[in-house]
Amino acid sequence: xxxxxxxxxxxxxxxxxxxxxxxxxxxxxxxxxxxxxxxxxxxxxxxxxxxxxxxxxxxxxxxxxxxxxxxxxxxxxxxxxxxxxxxxxxxxxxxxxxxxxxxxxxxxxxxxxxxxxxxxxxxxxxxxxxxxxxxxxxxxxxxxxxxxxxxxxxxxxxxxxxxxxxxxxxxxxxxxxxxxxxxxxxxxxxxxxxxxxxxxxxxxxxxxxxxxxxxxxxxxxxxxxxxxxxxxxxxxxxxxxxxxxxxxxxxxxxxxxxxxxxxxxxxxxxxxxxxxxxxxxxxxxxxxxxxxxxxxxxxxxxxxxxxxxxxxxxxxxxxxxxxxxxxxxxxxxxxxxxxxxxxxxxxxxxxxxxxxxxxxxxxxxxxxxxxxxxxxxx
Length: 378
Known about the structure:
Layout (H helix, E strand, L loop, with lengths): L21 E2 L15 E8 L3 E6 L5 E5 L3 E6 L2 E2 L4 E2 L12 E6 L5 E7 L5 E9 L2 E13 L11 E3 L5 E4 L22 E5 L25 E4 L6 E4 L6 E5 L5 E7 L14 E2 L2 E2 L14 E4 L7 E6 L11 E6 L4 E8 L2 E11 L3 E6 L5 E5 L3 E7 L1
Antiparallel strand pairs: 1-21, 2-28, 3-4, 4-5, 5-6, 5-7, 8-9, 9-10, 10-11, 12-13, 13-14, 14-15, 16-17, 17-18, 18-21, 19-20, 22-23, 23-24, 24-25, 26-27, 27-28
């Protein structure tokens, strides 16, 4: 398993270039892709810098706006904010409200944001009758950040019922503090905790580094640069991570549902499947299932979801993703963790900062400029 991320331009870095070349890290001769499914992007609403989203109670879709508001998508667009923390966060660099999620029972709502000091913070709220209970708010976890970029910030519950949190390497460039390979920090890691099992949380006993005096027990996987967006396949439970690259390679990493964790995605010894600045490939390095270079317009991969909706049968089982700078929506055909084809879906989502998977499996595309679109059959 292995991951890498770079600042999405929503989040800071701007990359200019011109055309997107994709290569598959695993196969010498990638299988000929099937004909791309015919899809269209239907604008369903606009928001102020939408940054993340989540499936909510009763089939609703909740949208986070980077400055600190959360609103619910309805037939008439987005409603009034159901949560507003704009006085508590900052949007300099790559900061802001970066992730939202519910537990499986929709009994608790979680937000991931950077506070006024730039510290990554995950807070929890109880939910009753589909509504956030502000007086139940509590802080679950915090992580100081040395720089304003590479915060990561995505949060999701896995099929195992535990909360996963993605942290970038701390920022700047080239991982100057060596956080990616350092197991004594949560930076550059995928974290797995049980927020309901302790105060403020419990560490699952089967986390891979539990009992290791030289490692943080919360760590699930490491060697990540900026895992800006990750997801679990609703059909298989597999984990997919879009990790933003430093300057040459964008990558997508895959881990099977039965993984015991502990994957080393290589950063900062590796950028994708390539040694970074003379780095040595770790013996336990898990290379990406897919990578593409920066010779074109792409500069910052935006991870998405394996499509499990019903509206587009030809897209079933394919991993949908994009790039913040390129905006083209693409899909990977996967077979047991191997990429067998790459499709250009023929639509462009703009400055794609995130995808949202509705409760019915349909996918939404968030353009940081404001447009919220649904992927529909053409």
